[in-house]
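Look over both lines before class:
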Amino acid sequence: MTPAKGQFSRITRQRNDQPNTPTTDGKVKTKGAYAAPEPGPSGWPNPTGQIAVDAVVAYLQNGTPLADTVRACADIRQFLHVRQVKGGGSYCPDGVLPKAPTQLFMRSIVGDIKDKAELLGTYGHACAQEAARREYLGKAVRWYYAKGSKGCIVTPTGGMVARSEGCRPLMTLPDVPPPDIDYDWYIAETYKILEEIGYGAAQPQL
């Protein structure tokens, strides 16, 4: 199904706002969390995978399949997420182990150890090894979603930075996009956006 031009005039995560308004000029206006990162009174906003928004706009405005826009993009900046982390964020390539898990979870990590003291000690050692593998990134962390990645970014207290699971840090921009961009993640994100603006039931073709 292809949307009629001008069916939506705005895309927003501000759920208290009117999510869409019919127009006749064929344009799609983005605002709020969906607006393209541009400088404002408080500085530059943090990018959050702008390619997903661009794909939705192209679909609503021109009927372009969502996957076509995502997969055709060669600008890695459009795939980036950026967040400020107080005290600095660190990348955990294998994910982060919880500090107070159940014994069942600990055994799933270190093996079926029956003695509780030995189990706690072995799991504590595994946590120390995981912490030693962390890579400090800085107070402004930048990442994209990568195929097969188990990594995430954590705060100095060990909490996971929001939406960083499955990421790979990209603190220096490359000349060409990384070969492991998880395009399916970004395409799935376009579906979420369509659902939030009341268009999810249409199930556009990827």
